[in-house]
Design a protein that fits this description.
By secondary structure, the chain is of the alpha/beta class. It has helices at 30-36, 75-86, 92-95, 196-210, 237-240, 260-270, 281-296, 323-343, 360-369, 390-401, 434-448, 461-465, 471-489, 509-512, 524-533, and strands spanning 46-47, 102-103, 136-138, 153-154, 165-168, 174-175, 183-188, 214-218, 233-234, 274-279, 302-307, 347-353, 374-376, 403-409, 454-458, 495-500, 503-508. The strands form four sheets. The protein has a nine-stranded mixed beta sheet with strand order 3-5-17-16-11-10-7-8-9, sandwiched between helices. Strands 13-14-12-15 form a four-stranded parallel beta sheet, with helices on both faces. It has a two-stranded antiparallel ribbon with strand order 1-4. Helix 9 (360-369) packs across helix 15 (524-533). The longest helix has 21 residues, at 323-343. The radius of gyration is 25 Å and the shape is globular. Bound molecules: adenosine-5'-diphosphate, 1,6-di-O-phosphono-beta-D-fructofuranose and magnesium ion. 1,6-di-O-phosphono-beta-D-fructofuranose is lined by residues 190-191, 280, 309-311, 354-356, 410, 424. Its main location: cytoplasm. The record marks 282 as: Important for substrate specificity. It holds the Pfam family PFK.
Length: 539
């Protein structure tokens, strides 16, 4: 039976403050709300979180909002209007006001993809499956009654309800590209993630249903645009039919690569006018820059992203594809660590999971397994040594339970390691190996206190990333892939697609990558994780 450590803090204090120095939870409203701290009412985003604002260097919000004066009786209306403006999605008609729209060729009546449009486009005249351009999805669905409510994000001290609407994804009745004039390209960048092949597959299948015949894959990420030895891969339903049965990416992935202008030069040369970009924060920063460069050059191109990251660090979305699968797979590693630890005399199982800045996989896998005693993530500071340190608690667990399991996210405890200052080809900081560090410190500590322990360290990170998507991710990938194509045909560009409050939406890219999403240490989910592990604060 699990025994709780006597050092457990019974409740977590909720630092409510409307002082401008309050740490702002890193959600989408941050830039606007931080500016509010200079407003006459001197109110910033009021949050019960203790995490500080983290910001990706990549992209700032593209559409800045002026400060909201909370003493203005109409501030809510103004806020909602400005929110709508920030989350408006760029459209081809912004640059080409006379762009011709035709009736959609997305037709679910069976038709051979090799058929030519000699007799005109097929259409489902009576079909009521289209999305109206004015359809919206609500971004936030909880009305908090107090800033001290767990996870509360409030704009004013009363936590006034403010509506934040974003664009609903899906097929439109009017499209801005003639299928026979489309050359569509798909690219996968960054690290691997379960589900990449499922998304590629559904982009290709949906493009074919619209009637596109010229579809290519760019090999090995952005590098494929500049490396002369890499040739584009022709794609069709036949090519992609079974690719979802294996993990990885049919097209290959890479970090780093050519400049944005080189990429756009290459797109011009190749005649690409639809680009589907599958990747994380970095890839999306690139996609947005490509979109802007195309606009600057007056190219009628749709650039649409599909967020890919097992780290789940993309803002606003319920989750990104591959995350669910990663959690499921991580749980298997935790179970092995548990079995090893449980079967050994004074066994300690340590599992390292991915998560550069965000501990979502570690948190969710710990919760899912129910076998973790200590979960360490980058968002929550901790000490290893000292009276409240991890090792002291570990000793207590060994004494009371006989074994213990520790789950660490790769980005945890970086302040306790020597900095490498190394960067990968994309400019991401190369992290120190905290898993190895805590393994070594555990062995040292128990030697010092003359207590025998049997430490088993499992690093399943690349095994987790390489698996094929599970059923739930498979469905998510299908919907995201289809919606990416609908967005491009509808004439949107510089957008990405995500699942938000169980609905599918289009968002302007800068809003989802303004900074990496992270675990809120005051969220219900982190509290649930603490309830499950029974771990105390290690501070
Ligand atoms: N700020 C940026 N602007 C343009 N391209 C970027 C930017 N950051 C990263 N990239 C490119 O995006 C690709 C993927 O980035 P990376 O950070 O490795 O993965 P991810 O997209 O999963 O975060 C790389 O080819 C990288 O060169
Ligand atoms: O060894 P690689 O390819 O750099 O990948 C490691 C990184 O991949 C990730 O899982 C996901 O990163 P990306 O979203 O940038 O692909 C990180 O958590 C991890 O640091
Ligand atoms: Mg990234």
């Amino acid at each position: 039976m699990e025994t709780l450590s006597p050092s457990i803090t019974p409740c977590v204090s909720l630092p409510y403050s409307n002082n401008s120095s309050v740490h702002v939870r890193s959600h989408g409203l941050s830039s606007l709300l931080l500016r509010n701290s200079r407003s006459p009412a001197n109110l910033s985003l009021i949050s019960s979180s203790r995490s500080s604002l983290t910001r990706a260097s990549a992209v700032e919000h593209s559409k800045t909002s002026p400060s909201i004066d909370l003493s203005d009786p109409n501030w809510k209306t103004k806020y909602e209007r400005e929110f709508e403006e920030r989350f408006s999605i760029p459209h081809i008609t912004d640059v080409f006001p006379d762009a011709e729209a035709i009736r959609s060729t997305f037709c679910l009546k069976m038709r051979s993809p090799t058929e030519d449009f000699v007799g005109g486009y097929p259409s489902d005249e009576e079909w009521h499956g289209y999305i109206n351009n004015n359809d919206r999805v609500l971004l936030k669905v909880i009305s908090y009654s107090s800033p001290t409510s767990a996870g509360a994000e409030c704009i004013d001290s009363d936590c006034s309800w403010v509506e934040q609407w974003i664009h609903r994804a899906g097929p439109r009745e009017k499209i801005y590209f003639r299928p026979e004039q489309v050359k569509a390209a798909i690219i996968t960048c960054g690290g691997l993630c379960p589900g990449l092949n499922d998304v590629i597959r559904h982009i290709v299948i949906t493009l074919e249903i619209y009637g596109v015949k010229n579809i290519v894959g760019i090999p090995f990420g952005y590098k494929g645009f500049s490396d002369k030895d890499l040739t584009e891969m022709p794609l069709s339903r036949k090519v992609v039919q079974n690719i979802h049965l294996s993990g990885g990416s049919l097209l290959g992935v890479s970090r780093g690569g050519p400049s944005v202008s080189e990429i756009v030069d290459s797109m011009e040369e190749r005649g690409i006018n639809m680009l589907f970009v599958l990747g994380g924060n970095g890839t999306h920063a690139g996609a947005n820059a490509i979109h802007n460069e195309c606009r600057k050059r007056k190219m009628k191109v749709a650039v649409v992203g599909v967020p890919k990251t097992i780290d789940n660090d993309i803002l606003h979305m319920d989750k990104t594809f591959g995350f669910d699968t990663a959690v499921e797979e991580a749980q298997r590693a935790i179970n092995s660590a548990y079995i090893e630890a449980h079967s050994a005399y004074h066994g300690v199982g340590i599992v390292k999971l991915m998560g550069r800045n965000s501990g979502f996989i570690a948190m969710q896998a710990s919760l899912a397994s129910g076998q973790v005693d200590i979960c360490l993530i980058p968002e929550v500071p901790f000490n290893i040594h000292g009276p409240n340190g991890v090792l002291k608690h570990l000793k207590y667990l060994i004494e009371t339970k006989g074994s213990a399991v520790i789950c660490v996210a790769e980005g945890a405890g970086q302040n306790l390691l020597e900095k490498t200052n190394a960067k990968d080809a994309s400019g991401n900081t190369v992290l120190g190996d905290f898993g190895v560090h805590i393994q070594q410190e555990t062995k040292k500590y128990f030697k010092e206190v003359s207590m025998p322990v049997d430490v088993k360290y499992i690093d399943p990170t690349y095994m987790i990333r390489a698996v094929r998507a599970n059923a739930s991710d498979g469905i998510l990938c299908t919907v995201l892939g289809q919606n990416a194509v609908h967005g491009a045909f509808a004439g949107y560009s510089g957008i990405t697609v995500g699942i938000i409050n169980t609905h599918y939406a289009y968002l302007p890219i800068p809003e989802v990558i303004a900074y990496p999403k992270s675990v809120d240490p005051n969220s219900r989910m982190w509290h649930r994780c603490l309830t499950s592990t029974g771990q105390p604060d290690f501070i």
